[in-house]
Design goal:
The protein is an alpha+beta fold. The protein has three helices and four strands. A four-stranded antiparallel sheet has the order 1-2-3-4.
Amino acid sequence: MRFIEMTGKVLATMLSDDEMQASDLKTAGVNDETIVRVNEHGDIEVRRDSEWDVVGGLLGSYEDRVKQATGRDWA
């Protein structure tokens, strides 16, 4: 599976109203410096000490939003 990595801060700026909100990210343990990644299916995963944890998902045209917000492509 391919992903695009980013920080929690970048993720928060690209979310739409029908997706996770700032309070949801905080509850999931995501802050500005947290390493997160989004896979090609739109799943949001958070880097924990020894694993990745799925905490939510993106909807709609997230592919373009993820690429635009990060300047990265799927890897």
